Amino acid sequence: MTRKFAPWILVAVAALVFAGLAAWRFAGPGGRAPAASSSPAVGGPFQLADQNGRPVDQRVLRGKWSAVFFGYTFCPDVCPTTLQTLGAASEELGARGKDFQVVFVTVDPERDTPAKLKDYLSSAAFPRGTIGLTGSPQQIAAITKAYGVFYEKDGSGPAYAVSHSSAIYLMNPKGQYDSVIAYGLTPDQTRDQILKAMRQGGAS
Question: Which of 24, 105, 117, 144 is at 20 to 30 A from 177, Cα to Cα?
Fold first, then answer.
């Protein structure tokens, strides 16, 4: 194992541990949020800007199933791999793809401007229509706290890295937490988990 690769192994392991804790602490059997919950433990109000510089809040999650993923554009492996997986999975949703969207929230607001997010998310390998969100360091700290996301700057200078959680948060069309999609699943496994949530949630 190389020195460069080792931190991402630790991040992936930490994310899997968090996913298990989230399913146990925040959700009912099978990692799903209790239907009667009036105050979801994952998620909540936020104020950010999208890749076009437009103000966005939690209402962006309403009306569709949303896969919310926290990462950054300079991420060398976990972020592009996850976005590619979500891109392939969304293509396999068929007719239900119209009810699904991906929301990418940066944990590196110092470098990830709206313009940088727009350029990054234009990759053909990433999900079409992905919504990129950024904001001030304080705004990013607030949304990561609401979602229980870990992130930490690693190094100094312009080439610093950011260690961060790699779990995906699946939110229902009401903008409420449904389940965690763990890092490392195949596109087919990811698609199946999304479709299962849609069926159980009554999506058409």
Answer: 117
